[in-house]
Amino acid sequence: MKERLHPVMFAGTGSDVGKSIIATAFCRIFRQDGYNPAPFKAQNMALNSFATEDGLEIGRAQAVQAEAAGVACHTDMNPLLLKPQSDHTSQVVLNGRPIGNRDAYDYFRKEGRAELREAVYAAFDRLAARYNPVVMEGAGSLAEINLRDSDLVNVPMAMHAGADIILVGDIDRGGVFASVYGSVMLLRPEERRCVKGILINKFRGDLRLFEEGRKMLEELCGIPVLGVVPYYHDIHIEEEDSVALAAKSAAAQRGKINVAVVLLRHISNFTDFDSLERDPRVHLFYSNNVDELAKADILILPGSKSTLDDLYELRRNGVAQAILRARREGATVLGICGGYQMMGVQIRDPHHVEGDIEAMPGLGLLPMTTEMLGEKVTRQVRFTFADKPDNQMEGYEIHMGETLPVEGSAFQPLNRLADGQDDGCLVDEKCMGSYIHGILDNPAFIDRLLAPHGAKLTEAATAFDYHAFKEEQYDKLADHVRRYVDVPKLYEILRGER
Fold first, then answer.
1. Average pLDDT of 183-206?
2. What is the C-alpha separation between 70 and 34, in angstroms, rounded?
């Protein structure tokens, strides 16, 4: 039986400093060292989400961290999820279930926060009773002093948990001394005492050049610098944010199957495509440029948080016509979730679930119609191909709406779920849609998707085991962080007196 460690919170000097990746690394490190860790982020804001085994919704980052820790994900790991619907409003998901849409101003007011605070504290307490240690992640900056009284995720959460805070700063963006020192000094004295260590992340160059800087930070803050972690390029962990997608190369490649993911304004669950991106048979890129889309052998319409709005934009910018032209010229078109809905004949929203648009014609590639419903479907599923039930596969659903065949149409489902229900629609081997996220993590599905274009492949292209690849990446990440962080010192902190 391993000794009990304090919970540890990796908090940041700002957003995108790498605290999620550092937390993922330590979920794997603690697991390797014989502990039973689990991740926790009280409040996450992301369009990338995941369905738990009991059919509830959490942020994808915590699902990735749970995978690194070797445990099944649970809503207690991310009790509060905000899914942006516009610049000002988000869908609020509490303990895995949507409880409505909230304007940002109303959400962050002090009034009504007690109920949310009680819910996230209770989730942490349940998690801490089952796991050791809990690896916590902060959000944004540790020192959001204007939101101090309504904060649910940073210092108040750490103080409730009795957690030791490790402050993560990003040296790559510049200003690391000011951001670290400022973050510490803006805290109240009792809050400052919770910060037990500093990590400098994303360093480029010769580490010896920062030795003096490390000493200066320790003297300024009175807190030990536990490590300086270099930037890496050869470790691949699923990303939480979609901002980098458009930068992925759109140039077609010889000897590979070129796959284009249509870049939607409200794209969600883009980690559906990570397995394809790593597959040596595939060159994958994201684009909404009609000339680039014309180079693709396979076009994929991804999930969307605002399906009707994105469908309207595809019609406005010419991408809808480009997809139809590609289909006529022999390209494969696959729709997943919102993309599957768009491929049908029509989408109706009579109850204004998404907004003011009550109905819009779809792309007409599948003989299906969709009606948006207020109840969200979230569940993990096991399935086979409807016409080839040999391969057992798995994935998850997160969607609003019901999609049914057009009356009198020659409908053929793509998949058959373990409970006997049908999923998706198959027109032919080059035109299909499904509600299942993670469908591309199944080698049998990828093989079927690529098969019509197999003649393009060079002899060097081989099949790909994505699960084994992810496990290897978690181990590589843990090795990288161990090399540059004083892990024994961190254990000393987590075993120490309060």
1. 94
2. 11
